[in-house]
Specification:
Family: Belongs to the methylmalonyl-CoA epimerase family.
Low-confidence stretches: none
Number of helices: 3
Radius of gyration: 14 Å
Structural class: alpha+beta
Number of domains: 1
Number of strands: 8
CATH topology: 2,3-Dihydroxybiphenyl 1,2-Dioxygenase, domain 1
Order of helices and strands: EHEEEHEHEEE
InterPro entries: Glyas_Bleomycin-R_OHBP_Dase (IPR029068), MeMalonyl-CoA_epimerase (IPR017515), MMCE/EMCE_epimerase (IPR051785), VOC_core (IPR037523)
CATH class: Alpha Beta
Domain VOC: 5-133
Distance between the termini: 17 Å
Helix content: 10-25%
GO molecular function, one term: metal ion binding
Keywords: Metal-binding
Shape: globular
């Protein structure tokens, strides 16, 4: 089994501060990590849930994939991140199974991780992020 656990559920939002406040009030959630990921054009906040995260994402520029997703579909579920021990191995396995890669090779992600994204068209409508810590 290449998947070790759910790393995060990503939710795209227009107003990051309002979303953080909502999760704090509704669930008592606290911020575990916050980072601007320039390469993806997003600011993220990670809120710890057991060994996983709720990842709140907001675009930092109008051309980012998250900005385009919000414009097209509105706020809400953006992608699911699966934790793996070896991102390159999991990427190759998914491609061999018929998945369509967005990233042709693993690349640096937030909080020092290595990541690769798979297109929803090849993954039953779900944008998938492979995450190696």
């Amino acid at each position: 089994m290449l998947l070790t656990e759910i790393d995060h559920i990503a939710i795209a939002v227009r107003d990051l501060e309002a979303a953080v406040e909502y999760y704090q009030k509704a669930f008592g959630a606290t911020i575990d990590h916050r980072e601007v990921v320039e390469s993806d054009g997003v600011e993220e906040v990670l809120m710890k849930v057991a060994e996983s995260y709720i990842q709140l994402l907001t675009p930092t520029n109008p051309d980012s994939p998250v900005a385009k997703a919000i414009e097209k579909r509105g706020e809400g579920l953006h992608h699911i991140g699966y934790r793996v021990n070896n991102c390159a191995e999991a990427l190759a396995s998914m491609i061999a199974a018929g998945a369509t890669p967005i990233d042709k090779a693993p690349r640096p992600g937030s909080r020092g991780t290595t990541v690769a994204f798979m297109h929803p068209k090849g993954s039953f409508g779900t944008l998938i992020e492979l995450v190696q810590e």
